[in-house]
Structure formats: structure tokens, C-alpha cells
Amino acid sequence: MALAHSFKNEVSIVLAGEAGQGIQTIETILTQILKRAGFHVFGTKEYMSRVRGGSNSTEIRVAASPVPAFIDRIDLCVPLDPKALAHLEHRLTEQTLIVGEAQALQSSREILDIPLTKLATTIGDPIFANTIAAGFLAGLFNVESGPVLEAITKIFAKKGEEILGKNRQAALEGIRLAQEACTAHSIHLEIKKCPSVAGQVIIQGYEAIALGAAAGGCRFLASYPMSPSTGVLTFLAQHAAQLGIVVEQAEDEIAAINMGLGSWYAGGRAMVTTSGGGFALMAEGLSLAGAIESPMVIHLAQRPGPATGLPTRTEQGDLELALYAGHGEFPRIILAPGTLQDAFLCASRAFFLADKYQVPVFILTDQCLMDSYYNVKEFPEVPKEAPSFVAKTNLDYARYRLTEGGISPRGIPGFGEGIVCVDSDEHDEGGYITEDANVRAAMVDKRLKKQKILPEDSMAPEFYGTGGYQKLVLGWGSNFHAIREALCRKGEKDTAFLYFKQVYPLPEKILEYLRKAKEVICVENNATGQFARLIRRETGFEVHRKILKYNGLPFSVEELAQKI
After folding, report:
1. What's the whole-number mean pLDDT along residues 269-276?
2. Residue by residue, what is the 3-state secondary structure of 301-343?
3. What pLDDT does 7 receive?
């Protein structure tokens, strides 16, 4: 067979098959091996909402430099069943190298035949086919056996010596097959290694959010599981003792947010993590936070709606839900990280902002960010000691004392001599129920005063480009990397990029960027251009063009390069 393939600087690998076939096993082994060997690694998943069956895939980009964005191109495809090839047909080209069991795949395409099941059975069980496949892929990158066996040991050591030994044997068998295949079929991968990568860590989006929350002083998490936010809940539960966090799986989302508010009232920084459908149940609790002026941190991991929608896919459709949720009028802050470093930073900063201004703070992510990962050198520095804004009360303490900026000293029960009275009904300065019209107006004005001072701590948008730009691309959240790489590929000096990691309140200087461009383009993973609409509402500026996607998949670098 004429299977000659040559890859330089970067390879895009896609593993595909049914849920339950072991894609994640191959992915876990391979990414750890490649990172240890000194390659930059990026991975992202697309999967169906089922425990068994369906067609799922994982893309792994391996490169000489960071490439943390999704691309359509497939260089190396490893399908585990015939349906996988049909599922990926639109992404395959004549240059794609397909590796697998030719007889099982039953495809007219040229396939590099690897008898995984037969070899795994020889070792002791067909289950070892996945480790052979991981070893084979590592072998294509000419990875030495040392890093491979280190990764295998780390992953399987807890399963006992026999299982570990057979997985080591399977990985080495995969490397041997790769060496034979490279020689027989002229397969060449020329990707320069970066020694410093070996000492870095591979972090997933949900881990970055969880670690950022811990760094921000989170001491209590209450949530009900809902993809794609569940990873934050499970990660913090697994590491609760190490991080000093109490984690509670509530009976529903209503209970979760009310538990969180109880924690803040008692002095403990709290967060809830949920998705759109779960947050819909939290709307009354959000409004309660607004009324009692309680800090609250809400991690809202978006997925396509309405209703159950596409529970395992991605979308940026909940910006307006976060913006307008809750009855009545009260201020809020919405952060939308687009990188793992920013996910950590925004999660940490959310607690500072919520505590300082006594408002709800949203961390808006999505399935794309939550389930993507890449190697990182370090996270941004945050204060080692989380600043506290809790005031010690005296006998004449009034929880809602009128102040010039609208922020009253926040006391907690038992810290001082005063009574800390909070109430969801309209209240006076002491926190006691009132129906006095003048007091009502004063309290509304007090709460809304905060909106005017929130920009003092806004996270400014990041500008990429030169001062002479004609075209300005706007992006927020997880679209960051795809937009950046697309613009780098185009190399047009008259095109700049403005990235928002805080989408509300908008920074005051945004108009300076917008007015300078002849064309402003907004890139969003939703059907109606919610961020563009927010910009118009806040500034009066009408975005000239929108690039929108809402089929449940993230933007690829190629499509953005073409559409921009």
C-alpha cells in the first residue's frame, strides 16, 4: 500500500468510536506520554448524550508550539468502529492517515491495518487493545520507551502489579508496531520537542475553574450535577480535604443557591456550579441575593438550549440569561474566560468582586472550555491571603446603612456586638421590613449606586493588533484561541482582535476601539448575537457584521479564517 505520510511541526489526531469503547483511555495515556516527551498538547471532545453507543470523538493536537484551538483538519484518524469514519467523513482528506483494524472498519478508504484485538488477546485480554493503540501512536512520534512506561505506571499502578505489567507490555508492543509501520510505509513526523513542556501540567477547563475558586478563598460549594459543569463539583469533592472546602451535593438547584447564600451570611465564601437549565431554578435565589445584598459566585457552564437542548454540546446562549435573570433591578458582574489561565484568574477574582461589592458574580463558561485541555506552565498570581470585607459590628450596627457608594459594611453573626438582620422583603437600614415609599426608593437607589462604581475593578479587554487596524474582531469566552489562531494564519495587519474576559459591566473605553474601525465583526456561539446586542444597549454602537454558530459545535480555526 502507498501510505507515505509526512507531518511537520504539528499533527492533528482524532480518536473516534462509540461511548464505552475506550477513547478516553487512549487519550489519557497518549497525552501524558507526549507531554512527558516534550510536545505541546491540546485536546477537546465532542460526544453524544449517552453512556453506550453513538459516535464520539476526541481531537488531540500535538505541536512544537502551543496550539490550543479546535481545527477541522484531521491528519491522523484512529476509528474504533465503522460508524466513526462516517461520522468524520466531512473532515477526512486524501492526506489523512487512517489507523485501525481494516477488517472491522469495512471502509473503501486506505487503512494502515493494525491487528489491535488479536495482539491484545495474546497479551491476556482484548481490553489491552487501547494501550497498544496509545503505544502505537506514541511510537509514531519516536517517543522512547522511558516516558511511555512512566506514564503507564502513573495511570495503572493502583490496579496491581499484574494489570500494570500487562499494560506496560501492551504499550511496548504498540511502540514496536509503530517502528515497523514507519519503516514499511514511509511515515515521518518532524515535530521539534520542547524540553520545558515535560515539567508543565495538563489542565482541563473544569480543573482551572475549581482551582481558581479555591485560590479565591472558596470554602463552600453546593451544587446539583448538570453537564458540563459537573467536573467542577466532582473535582472539588475529590480534593475537598486538601483545599479546605466543604462540598455539598444538594437535592436540587434551588437548595444549592440558598445553601450558598447561607454560607455567605455566616462568613464563608461560597459558589454554585451549574448549567442553563439548573440556573433557571436558581433565579429566585439570585434575586434574593440582590435583595439582601449578599455576595454570591455562580459558575454557569453553558450548553445549547432551550430546555434539555443538546446536553453534551457547546454554545454561548446564556449571556442574556445571566444578564437579566432575577426579578427586580439589582447589579451584577459577568466574567467570561477564554483561556485556562483566565478561567483560573476569573474564578479567583469572582470572590474578591462578590465580597467587595456585595453582588452576584457570574463566571460564564461553556462545554468547549470545560472539556478542553492543554499543557500550561503556570497560572496567574493571586493574593495568598484572600482579602476580607467583613466588618466587626457594634451595638448600633445597621446592615443596610445608606452610604455614598451604596456599599454598606457587611457584618456576620457573632463577629462583634451588633445584630445582623437581613430580609428578602424591602427593608430599612437596620434590615427590618418596611413598606415606606421613601425608604423603598432610597434602598433601590442604594443598590443601584453600586452599578456606577463596579467599573473601578473591571477586567479590561485585551487588544491584539496594531494601531492602524481597519477591521476589528470582537470575541468573548472560549472563542479566544480560535480567533487568535485564525487571525495569525491570515496575517492581515489591518485586522485586530479585542477579547473580552468580562462582558458586564462593559469597560468604559470600549467605544474608543469600536469607533476607530471601519468594520467591527462580533464572533459568537449563539444564534442572535447576544454580546453584539449588549454592546448596542450599553453604548449605542451597532456591530457591522456577526459571525454566529449554534449547531452545538465550537468554531474551528479554518472556518473563522475564511469567514473573517
Report:
1. 98
2. EECCCCCCCCCCCCCCCCHHHHHHCCCCCCCCEEECCCCHHHH
3. 85
SS3 109: coil
Establish if 381 belongs to a structural domain: no
Residue where a domain terminates, one of 150, 165, 199:
199
Residues 211 and 348 in one domain: yes
Across the chain, mean pLDDT equals 94
Q: How far is Cα 75 from Cα 194, in angstroms, rounded to an integer?
A: 21
State the Cα–Cα distance between residues 450 and 42, nearest whole angstrom.
40
In a domain, 327, yes or no: yes
Let me know: does 362 contact 301? Beta carbons within 8 Å: no
Dihedral-angle region of residue 215 (phi above 0 means left; psi in -120 to 50 means alpha; beta otherwise): alpha
Q: Is residue 382 part of a domain?
A: no
Cα–Cα distances in angstroms (integers) from residue 22 to residues 17, 58, 129, 203, in the given order: 8, 11, 9, 21
Boundaries of domain holding 517: 462-563
Residue 169 is assigned to a structural domain of this protein: yes
353 and 422 housed in the same domain: no
- pLDDT tens for residues 164-180? 999 999 999 999 999 99
- Domain count along the chain: 4
pLDDT surpasses 80 at 142: yes
| CATH code of the domain in which 131 resides | 3.40.920.10
Q: Supply the pLDDT for residue 253.
A: 98
pLDDT in tens, 38-76: 999 999 999 888 878 788 899 999 999 999 999 999 999
Query: CATH number, domain at 515?
Result: 3.40.50.920
CA 306 – CA 406 distance, rounded (Å): 36
Task: Report CA-CA distances (Å) from 534 to 316, 376, 538, 539, 543.
Answer: 14, 33, 6, 8, 10
Domain co-membership, 37 together with 156: yes
Cα–chain center distance at 81: 29
pLDDT of residue 1: 45
In the chain, count H helices and then E strands: 20, 22
pLDDT of residue 25: 87
- Say whether both 174 and 30 belong to one domain: yes
Question: Residue 337 belongs to a domain with what CATH number?
Answer: 3.40.50.970
Buried-state track 198-227, b at ≥16 Cβ within 10 A, e below 16 = eebebbbbbbbbbbbbbbbbbbbbbbbebb
Cell of 338: 477564554
All residues at 6 or more sequence positions from 251 whose CB lies less than 8 Å from its CB, including other chains? 224
The distance from CA 422 to its chain's CA centroid, rounded to whole angstroms, is 35
Confidence of residue 4 (pLDDT cuts 50, 70, 90): low
**Opening angle at CA 351, ends 370 and 461, nearest 5:** 65
- Sign of dihedral through CA atoms 385, 386, 389, 395? negative
Count CB atoms within 10 A of the CB of residue 132: 27
Number of other residues whose CB lies within 10 A of the CB of residue 356: 19
